[in-house]
Design a protein that fits this description.
The chain is an alpha/beta fold. The protein has one domain: 3-Layer(aba) Sandwich (Rossmann fold). Helix content is 36%, strand content 25%. The chain has 11 helices and 10 strands. Strands 6-7-8-3-9-10 form a 6-stranded mixed sheet, with helices on both faces. The chain has a 4-stranded antiparallel sheet with strand order 2-1-4-5, covered by helices on one side.
């Protein structure tokens, strides 16, 4: 297994020691048939921190983040090797329930994808079909509040979610993920389809959410990664080039390729 010292500075190791990793990739490789999308990648996602995954288009960012809650199970021919650990448990072990993994590790996608149902049903649907027996209206309200959407929709919960703006739809999708009471939220380019105002709302929301959740975000926007994340993993051609505290990766990178990427020389 790759040791932390091989891809992190001493400063990063010290910071990581302050908080337990909730997710860990250990020598992870992902293949689609004969094609290698991720090649021997290892890094940690510390609890109650935001970890950004950056890199040029086609470097494997989305493939990797989807492996963290077994979304790649739905892609024919996808093969994952190595270890992906959630609180020390290998989520790809034969006795691990992928449904439970996806409940504990939620996902928000690039484009808002609300169900063609009411705002209320969008948030309530997941808990109900997963057997939630508690106060459903209360859960819907708390989830919408955590997603900073309650004040905008509290008097229109029976209206179609499709009538919301793009930014509101994305926050609704975040509320839908939160309703399942996960510990980790994966976000794959959550603001790339939004206008600047909506993007700023999502970024502000991330700072609030990390008080309760651990967040891993894929972004092509390096300025966004620098603004919102605590740690950054830089991928290129399916390989991990560098992992460290975001400030270190962007201002004092260890690798020349990292410096070239964050300075805009390629990508």
């Amino acid at each position: 297994m790759m040791e932390l010292a091989e891809y992190s500075t001493a400063e990063t190791k010290a910071r990581l020691a302050e908080t337990a990793p909730i997710l860990e990739a250990r020598d992870v490789s992902i293949h689609y048939g004969a094609k290698t999308a991720i090649d021997n990648v290892s890094f940690l996602a510390p609890e109650h921190r935001i970890t950004a995954i950056i890199g040029p288009s086609g470097c494997g960012k989305s493939t990797l983040i989807r492996a963290f809650n077994r979304m790649n199970d739905f892609i024919q021919g996808a093969q994952v090797s190595g270890g992906i650990l959630y609180r020390g448990i290998d989520i790809y072990a034969p006795d691990t329930d992928p449904v439970e993994v996806r409940r504990r590790v939620g996902m928000v996608f690039q484009k808002p994808n609300p169900f063609p149902k009411s705002i209320f049903k969008n948030v309530a649907w997941g808990p109900i079909i997963n057997g939630f027996k508690g106060d459903v209206p209360g859960l819907v309200e708390s989830s919408l509040k955590k997603a900073a959407l309650w004040e905008e929709v509290s008097d229109r919960l029976d209206e179609s979610a499709l009538a919301l703006s793009g930014g509101q739809q994305q926050r609704l999708c975040i509320a839908r993920a939160l309703a399942l009471q996960p510990e980790v939220i994966l976000m794959d380019e959550p603001a790339s389809a939004l206008d600047p105002v909506s993007t700023a709302r999502i970024e502000d929301l991330l700072f609030e959410l990390k008080e309760r959740y651990t967040i891993v975000i894929v972004t092509h926007n390096m300025q966004q990664a620098a603004r919102v994340s605590d740690f950054t993993a830089f991928l290129d051609m399916g390989k991990l080039v560098e992992f460290g505290e975001t400030d270190q990766v962007f201002t004092r990178p260890k690798e020349k390729r990292t410096e070239d990427y964050v300075s805009g020389r390629f990508g």
